[in-house]
Each structure stands twice: as C-alpha cells, then as structure tokens.
Design a protein that fits this description.
The chain is of the alpha+beta class. It contains 4 helices and 6 strands, in the order αααββαββββ. A hairpin with a 5-residue loop joins strand 5 and strand 6. The termini are far apart.
Amino acid sequence: MHFRKAALLFAFLLAGPVLGVAQNTLSPHDVAKIRMVHKKYEETWLSGDADGVRALFTDDSVLLPPHAAKPWIGQKGLNEFWFPPNAPPTKITKLVVTLENIGGDGQIAYAWGTHEVAWTTVQGGATTSASHKGTFLNILRKQPNGDWKISHHMWDDALPKP
C-alpha cells in the first residue's frame, strides 16, 4: 500500500511541469503593457470615451459584476451593462485603480487590486452622486499584435462598515 502512495506522489511530481503548474513568466515589457491597459482604463472612463473603454476588452469578454444574475458577454454585453442606449447621462468623476499583483505566462495574465470609483447621474433634471470602493480581478489575453486586452473582468463592492 505504501508503494502505491509513493508511486502516485512521484507520478504527480513528474507531471507537474507537464500539467502547467502556474509560473509567472511575464516579461517586464508585458507587465508594463498590462499596467498601461489599466491606466488607459482609468483615462477612458474619466474622459467619457465609451469606444476607448470597449477597445480595452476582447470581443468575447466576460463581465462578472457583483450581485449580478448573469455574466455579460462580448462587446454586446459591455454595451448592455455599461452603455445602454436609454440610460440617463452618467459621468465618472473619479476612478483610481491600484494594482496589487500581476502574473501570468506570457499569453494569459491576471491582474488584481483595488478600485475607487465615483460618478454622477442626471435624471429628470436632478443630479445624483454615488461612489464605492472595492476589489477587482482581470484576466487578460495577449493579442496577435502583442497588445494585451481584458478578457474577464470581475469586481465587488466593499462591505459597509457596521
């Protein structure tokens, strides 16, 4: 019996590299490009550039917002969730994305951290303001031209203090 356990452990240790046990092999150049994607994410939202925001995401991207009943898939999902045609005018007034960690293998990467966002909405002549802080996780894919785009974006809101 001990032989079987030892053989199984040995086989697993040998298979680790073949199974692609996670290693961070991103080049410093790729890390810089991924940081730039997040900087552009801030800039495009703050300038009200919906096309610029959409351009940072893959065509088959997946949004996973907090408390959502479903994922929002593709550019169509981005439009339905963030840019619906009949939505009241909304302006992002503050967006601070703080990257805590970036890793990946050169084709797929992850970036996670915290965010702080504030916005105003105008409806019926009245302007309302809202904000929240939270955490996020992005999965990015390297494109054929070497650029990185967000393929999966999920976030949450910080719990209210008691």
